[in-house]
Structures are given as C-alpha cells and as structure tokens.
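Appendix B, example 12.
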Amino acid sequence: FDDGNVGLHGDLVAGDDIYSCIWDSTSQPVGVYTIDIEATDASANSNLRDFQSGVGFTLTDGTDPSISGVLVSDDPLEFVGTQTISAIVTDAYGIAWVRCYIEDGAPVANFLLYDDGTNGHLAASDNNWTGQWDSSGEPEGSYNVDITARDSNTNEDTLNNGNSFDILDSVDPLITNVQVTPSSGDPTSPG
C-alpha cells in the first residue's frame, strides 16, 4: 500500500512510490520465510519478484510458557498419602514438558506432570498438567510447590511457590494384641 496509513498498512507517506504492508505473524509457525512481491499496474501488466536469494527473515518464538492455577489435592496431607498436583500451562507453539518440584527449604522431590487424561485428571489436551506424589517417608512440615515448563522451542519459565501444603500425622497410634498376664503376688488374680 502507498496510502500513508501507518497503523493499518505500515506506510509512512502516501504517493511516494514506497509500498508497505503489515503481516500478522501471531499464528504462523517458527521458521525461515522468504519474500515474494508481485505488482500490477493500471494497464494490468504484472511482475513477480522472487527474493529467495537471501531476502527474508526468521520468525522465532521468544515467549515463555504461561504457568498459573497451581492446585494441590490435599492441605493438610496425611503423613502417608498421595498428593495430586496440577497447573494450567499454555504456549502458542506447544508444551514440551512440565515438571513439579516439591521442597521444604531443600529439594524433596521432582516429577513430570502430564496433560494426557491420566495422573489424576480426566481430560487430555486441556492445558491442565497433572501428576501425583507419594509422601511416604517425608516428615511433618510445610512444603512449597514450584512448576517449571518448557515449550517446543526451548523457552522455559518457572513459577516459584505456586502453592504450598502441610504434611501432618493426625492418626492416633493403633494399640493391638494386648495381653494381660497375672503375677503371683497380685491379690486380684485368680488362684
């Protein structure tokens, strides 16, 4: 366009024989693009200029994945239990992996989360990445959940302290197999 419409077409000055356009690359895949320009005059004569000999550009993805909505299934979590952890993770070019880190001031565990309809959630490919962790052997205390995600173009982001939970031992001890054995000096014992 040679209309001087900067906002719509990117053209600075109308009628200067410099033609401009704006291309929205938002939904285009990452890669190398070449530029071909075709012009047609008022007499319907046209010319195609193929610039494949080096005129072009590379479209890259520099945007990190978005991480939000970190949820834990139980807070507090019983001393020996399974914690289901989920996070909403999105990216325009797709997610390569999502990893959960559990820490209590020091690293405790890390494991992958999945968006495949298993591991504690029902639907696949819904951007809800979920996994499960067995807390067996972990002491009582407070635990933080960090989520790291990498997209298909190796951009990576971490949401630190996305959620937290406590591990408690609230179950009374079980007393079983009690036997009473009388002693010979006990006045209440039979015989």
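The first strand starts at residue 31 and ends at 34. Residues 6-9 form the longest helix (4 residues).
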